[in-house]
Amino acid sequence: MSPNVYSAYEVFTPTTQAKLNFVPRDSVNDQLVDAIRTPGKQLIVYGESGSGKSSLLLKKLEELYSDHITTRCSGASTEQSLVLDAFDQLAPYYESAVKETEYRGRSLTMAFRTIQGQIQRSQTTESEQARALPPQLTPQRLAEFLGAQGMCWVVEDFHKVSEPEKRFFGQMMKVFSDTATEFPSVKMVAIGATATARQVVQYEPEMNNRVAEIYVPLMDADELTAILDNGSVLLNVDMNEYRAQIVEYAVGMASVCHQLALNACLSADIGSTQPDVAKLEHDDLEAAIKRYIAESSDSLVATFELALRRRRLKKFDNCRLILAALASGPLSGLRHGEILARIRDIHPAYPAGNLTNYLRQLMTDDRGAVLGVSGDGGYRFVDPLHHAYARLSLVAVAEPPERAGSIYGSIAARSLYDLTLQYMTEMTPLPTGNAVELAPGAVWHTSISDEYREADLWPAFRERLRGDVNGDADTSDG
Fold first, then answer.
1. Distances (CA, A) of 61 to 9, 98, 219
2. 3-state DSSP call for residue 222?
C-alpha cells in the first residue's frame, strides 16, 4: 500500500499531464532530452493523438527548465494571437521584476512594459481578438523576452493551425534559433497529433539541422500495463482480473487507458487510496466501458452515427460489419482480404464487392472519413481514438459460447443483440417465461435488459445474422 493517500483523479489523468503516474518512454527519452539541452535546437514533437506526447515533454521540461509557457492552438489561431498569448503569459515575470532585465545595454523590463501599454491602449471593448500587435513585438523581441527569463515556449495542438500560419511559425523557429547565440536556453516546441513532423510545422530546408523532429509512438503493452500497475499501488487496488483487457481496448493510447482505469475505480466507489486492498471486478470494467462510451464527445458520437447510418434496411449492415472487423484487429489496420475473412466468419457468402464499395465510402466525408489507407496498402482508422471507441462500442465484453476466442464473433453477436432487443422493445412487449428458447446452461453476459441478462441468444442470433447469404451482392448505400 502507498504510504500516502491520493485521489483517483490524481492517479489516473486522461485529460491532463500524468505526474504521479508518469511512465517513462525509453524509446524517445534520450532523444528528447538531448534536443532540449542543445542550444538553438527547436523541437517538433509529433505522433498519434493520445500517445502521451504532452506528458512526456512536460515531464522533461520540468526537469530541465525552471519554467515554461504553453500556448494551445485552435483552427482560428493566427500569427498575431499566438504571439500575443505568449507575451501575455510573460507579464507576471516582468511586472513583478525587482530589478531591471537588460540586454545589450537596453532595459528589457522597460521595453516589455512599453509594449504592454501599447497593446492595452489599442484594445477595444468589443473583443479580445481586436487587439493589435504592436510593431515592436516582433518574433525577435519575443525570443529575447523569453530568453532573458531562461524559458521556453510550448505550442500545443499546432496541427490545427492553418497552412499559412504554419509557414510563419517555421520562420519564427529560425529567429529563435538565431537568438540562442545570446540566450542559449530559449526554445520553441511545437506539439502536433500528426503522422509526420511537416504536418505540424513547415520550415525552410536551411533549418533541417536546427530542428529536432521527435516522434512519440503509441504506448506498447508493457507501458500501458505500467500505468495500471502504478495506479494499483498508489490506490491500493487489485485490477489484475481485467488488466489485460484494458490494455487491449486502449490500443496504445495512454489517455484511453487512464480513462478506463479511472472509470472502473469510480464504478467501484474508489475515489482515493484504500486502507485495505480493494479488488475490482469484471462488472466494474463493463461499467467503465459503458461510461466511456456515454461520455464520449458529441463530435465522436456524431462521426460514428454518420459512418453507421443505414438509409434502408438491407441484407447486410455493411458499415457496421467492416468497422467491427477493423476494431477487432490491430491499430495498424487490416488488408482487404483479412477484413473479408473476418466478415465471412459470420457471413460465409458476404460479397467482396460490398466490402470494396463500403471501404471506399468510409473514407469519404459522407461517412465521416473514419478510415484511411495504411502504409502497407491495408485499411485502418484514421484516428486511434476512433479505433478505441469502435472497439469499446462494438466489441462485446464477453464472447458468445460458440465463438469463444473469436472477438469478431463477439462483435457481431453484440451488435445484433442490441438491434434485435431494440426492435422487440419498440414493436412488442418483452417476452416472458418460455417465449424465447434458450440454449441449455448458457449465460449471456450483458446488462442491457434484466429480462435477457441470463439468456444466451447467440444460437438464434447467429442464424439470423447470417441470413439469406445466397442472394446477389448488396451494393446499396446502406
1. 23, 26, 20
2. helix
Length of the chain: 478
List b or e across 306-328, with b for residues whose CB sees 16 or more CB atoms inside 10 angstroms.
bbbeeeeeebbbbbbbbbbbbbb
pTM here? 0.70
Is-contact 438 455, C-beta < 8 A? Answer: yes
State the Cα–Cα distance between residues 315 and 267, nearest whole angstrom: 39
**pLDDT tens digits for 64-105?**
998 999 999 988 888 889 999 999 999 998 876 545 565 554
Burial grade of 419 (CB within 10 A; 0-12, 13-18, 19 or more): middle
- Give the chain's mean pLDDT: 78
* H or E element at residue 256: helix 254-267
Among 73, 353, 71, 35, which Cα is nearest to 214's?
Answer: 35
| Helix, strand counts (H, E) of the chain | 18, 11
Does position 421 have pLDDT exceeding 50, yes or no? no
Over residues 175-227, the pLDDT tens digits come to: 999 999 999 999 999 998 776 656 666 666 777 788 899 999 889 999 999 99
Parallel, antiparallel or unpaired: strands 102-103 and 278-279? unpaired
DSSP per residue over 383-448, as a string?
Answer: SHHHHHHHHHHHS-SS--GGGTT-HHHHHHHHHHHHHHHHHHHHHSPPP-TTSS---TT------S
Dig out the grid coordinates for 342 from the structure: 473476418
325: amino acid identity, one letter:
A
